[in-house]
Amino acid sequence: MLASRELFGKFLACAGLVLALHSGAASPALAEVVLNRGNGAEPESLDPSISTGVPESFIQMDIFEGLVHPGPDGTLRAGVAESWEVSQDGLTYTFKLRPNAVWSDGKPLIAQDFIYSWQRILDPATASNYAFILWPIRNAEAITKGEMPKDKLAVEAIDEHTLKVTLKAPTAYFLQMLMHHAAYPVPGHVVEKFKAEWTRPGNIVSNGAYMVQEWVPQGHIKAVKNPKFRNAAEVQIDTVNYYPIEEYGTELKQFRAGELHATYDVPQEQIPWLEQNMAAQFHNSPYFGTYYYAINVTREPFKSNTKLRHALGMAIDRDILIKQITKGGELPAYGWVPPGVPGYEQSQVEWGSWDQKKRVAEAKKILAEAGFDKGNPLKVEILYNTNDNHKKIAIAIAGMWKQNLGVEATLRNEEWKVYLQSRNKKQFEVLRAAWIGDYVDPYSFLELLRGDIGEQNPAGYDNAKYDEATDKAANETDSKQRFALLSEAEKTLLADMPIIPIYFYTQQHIVSDAVKGWQDNLMDFHPTQYLRVEK
Amino acid sequence: MLSYAIRRLFGAIPTLLVILTLTFFLVRLAPGGPFDAERSLPAEIERNLAAAYHLDEPLVMQYGRYLGQVLQGDFGPSFKYKDFSVTQLIRSGFPVSLQLGGTAMLLAVIIGTSLGAFAALRQNSGLDYGVMGAAMVGIAVPNFVIAPLLTLVLGVHLRLLPTGGWGTWEQMLLPVLALALPQIAYIARMTRASMIELLRSNFIRTARAKGLPERVTIMRHAMKGALLPVVSYLGPATAAVITGSVVIEQIFGIPGIGRYFVQGAMNRDYTLVMGVVIFYGVLIIVFNLIVDLAYGLLDPRVRFD
C-alpha cells in the first residue's frame, strides 16, 4: 500500500513536470530559441586579428561584423558600411559607415575603430598570422615588416562615419578580402584595458549579431543575441552554443541523439550511410578547395621533363578515387581553380576532356619516350601527412601508376608538423596537398604558385610568364579583362603541370529539419543571424 | 611520518627538475614548430611571432627564462590557445578530469576489490570463472570500442542518456563507466590473485585455527594484506586517470586536460606540453607518497625512518 502511494506521488510529480513543460511550449513568445552547433575544434583565440582557423572564424562571423559581411548564401553584403564608392583607378575606396553602428557595450562604432584595428593587426608587435590579408592597402606590408610606423597606413577617417582606404594596386578582390576575419574591427577601448584577456567572457565587447557569454575551454562557447546589433529585430535565434567536437563520429552521434542542430562535418566513411538514411538532413555541396599532388620541379627527373609530370597526372583515374575512396561526390579536377567564381572561365588541362583509356595510352608513350621501361622503371616517392584518407588515396594512386605505367611508387607518411617542414624545404618528390581559397577569387589560388611566394609554393614552380600574367591582372581594373589574364595564367600553369589536380572539394553538414534558412554555399558561410529554429 | 613525508617532497624537487629539463629539450627537438601551418607565413610575420614568444633567443636562454617562470608558478602562455595561459587551461580543465577520473577510480576500487575477493573466496567456481572471464574482456576491449558502443546503444538508439557534453550527472554516467570498466577488471584480477595467495598463508591458517569467525578472518586479516598490491597500483593509476583520458574526452566531448598531452605535442605547443607534463609529474610524486604512507597503515612491517 505504501509502495503504491509512493508510486502515485511520483506519478503526480511527473505529470506536474510534463504539464509545466507543456505550458512552456504553449507560449513560444517566451521560449528561448537555442541553436546548438558542432564547431570542429577549440578556438585558438576569439580575437579576429589573432586567430587563424576555420572553427573560430565561424564564431567570429556571428559575434563581429566587418565593413562588408557574408549574407545567408555566403555572398558579400553591406555590413558596418552601408555603402561605398570606388575611384576610377580602383585605388581608393570610400566607405560610408552606418551612423547607428555601436559596440555591444553601447559605445558608437566609428571610422577610427577600423583604423585602430587595422593598425593593430599590421603592427609587428601584434604578431598576427593573417596580417597579410590587409597588405593590399598602401604601406601595410611595410608596417608589418617594421619598416614604417603604423600611423603611415593609408587609411583615414574623413569624419566619424566615412573611411577612406587607399590601395597600392587596384585589387579587384579587395572587398571579398574584407569579409575575412582579419579585417573585422576590434574594440580599442576594451583591448587596451584588458590586453591579452580582452576576449574573455565578461570582458569581450563585439559588434555582431551575438555576444559571447560563456567560454569553457574544450567544452563550449555560448553566445547570446546582441540587443544593440543594428539588425537585432531580424535576428531570430536567441542563443547559440558552439561545441568543439573534433571527432566527427561523436558529432554524428550527438546529432542523432538530438543534442546538436547542425554539425561541422561528417565522418567520411559514413557518407554512403548518411545518403541512404538521413538524406533530408545531409547537406553535400561544392567547396572552394582543390585536392592535388604537387611535383617537386626543382629536382630531376621532373625538373626538365614537363611531359613526365603530365603522364603521372593522366594515369590517375579520378572517377575511381571519388567513387571508391572519398565518396563525397567531389568533382574530378583537371584545372587548378575550383568552379563557382562568378564570371571566371576555368581553364582545363588538354587531356581533361579525353577518356581515361586515351590518357593512359598517351602517358605510356611519354614514359617510353623518356626511356623508362620494365628494366629501368621510374621511381617516385609520395609524401603525405598521416591521415587515413590521404593514405588510401596515395595507395590507390601508387597502384594506378604501377598498373598503368609500371612506375614504382613508394609511400612516405609524416606527422603534420614534420610534413610541413619537408614541404617547405622541398624534401619530397611528389606531395599530397590541398588548398582552400580565403576569398572567392581565382587569385586566391593562383597566388600560391607564384615564383616569389617563397617556400609556400608547393612545387617550387617558377615561371616568369605566369608571374607576369598575374601581375598584369593585379593592375587591371576591368574585371572581364582581369579574369581573362588570370585564366591565361591558369592555362600556363596547367601546361607546365607542377601540380596534378585531383578533385575539387565538397563540404558536408548534417542540419536538423528544425533549422530553416541554411543555404549551402561555396565558402561554407552560415551566419547564425539568418537562421531560424522551428519546433 | 610527517618528517618522512616532508623529506620525500623535498627529494622530489630534483626529479621534477629532470622531468622539466628533459621535456623542454625533447619537445624542441621534434621537427616543425608551433607556428608552422598549411599556409606558411611570410618571413617577416614569422619573425614577429618568434620575437613575441622569445623563440628567437638561444635555447639556453629560453630554458632559463622558462625555469624562472615555473618557479613563480607561471607556465607561460599557450602557443596554440592564445587567449589563455597554460595555468588557466589546467585550472579550467583539471577539476573536470579530477571529477571524472576520481569517480571512475572510486567506483573501480569498490567494485574491483569486491569482485576480486568474491572470486578468490570461491576459487574455481562458476562465479570465479565468470568474474575473471568478464575481467579479461574488460582489459582486452579498449576504451575506444566500449565508449562509442555505449553512446550508440544508450544514447542514440535508446535515448536514455546524453551522448556527450559535461555538467549534469547524466552526462557523467557513460564516461565514468567507460573509464572505470578496464580499471575494475585490473583491480579485480589483482585482488583475486593476492587474496588467493594470502588465504594459504600461515597467519590466516592461525586465525582460522584459533576459531575466529570467517568474516573477521577475511575482513580484518586477509583483505588488508590482499589490498597491498592494489594500493601500489592505485598511486600511478589514479594520477593517470585523473589527468584525463584523451580518448574518453574526445568521444564524449568532455572539457578535461587529457587531450592536452596529445594535442599539445601535435601542435608543438611547447608551453602546454611542459605544463601538463610537470603537473602530471607532481601528481605522480604525490600519489606515490600517499601510497607509501598507506602501506604503513596496511602493513605492520613498514616503518618510516
Describe this protein's structure.
The complex is a heterodimer of chains A (535) and B (305). Chain A has 16 helices and 18 strands. Chain A has 535 residues and is α+β, with helices and mostly antiparallel strands. Chain A folds into two domains: 5-254 and 511-533, Dipeptide-binding Protein, Domain 1 (Dipeptide-binding Protein, domain 1); 287-507, Roll (Dipeptide-binding Protein, domain 3). In chain A, the strands form five sheets. Chain A has a six-stranded mixed beta sheet, sandwiched between helices. In chain A, strands 1-10-9-8 form a four-stranded mixed beta sheet, covered by helices on one side. Chain B is built from twelve helices and no strands. The model of chain B has no long low-confidence stretch (mean pLDDT 89). The chains are: A alpha+beta (535), B mainly alpha (305). At the A-B interface, α7 and α13 of A face α2, α4, α6 and α10 of B.
Architecture blueprint of SSEs:
The complex is a heterodimer of chains A (535) and B (305).
Chain A: H1 2-26, E1 34-38, H2 54-63, E2 68-70, E3 76-78, E4 81-86, E5 92-97, H3 111-122, H4 140-144, E6 155-159, E7 162-166, H5 174-178, H6 188-194, E8 210-216, E9 220-225, E10 239-243, H7 248-256, H8 271-277, E11 282-295, H9 306-314, H10 318-326, E12 331-332, H11 356-369, E13 379-385, H12 388-405, E14 408-414, H13 416-424, E15 430-436, H14 443-446, H15 464-474, H16 479-496, E16 499-510, E17 515-516, E18 532-533
Parallel strand pairs in A: 1-10, 13-14, 13-15
Antiparallel strand pairs in A: 2-3, 4-5, 5-7, 6-7, 8-9, 9-10, 11-15, 11-16, 12-16, 17-18
Helix pairs in contact in A: 9-11, 15-16
Chain B: H1 2-29, H2 43-52, H3 59-71, H4 86-121, H5 126-140, H6 143-157, H7 169-199, H8 202-209, H9 214-242, H10 246-252, H11 258-266, H12 270-298
Helix pairs in contact in B: 1-12, 4-5, 4-7, 4-9, 5-7, 6-7, 6-10, 7-9, 8-9, 9-12, 10-11, 11-12
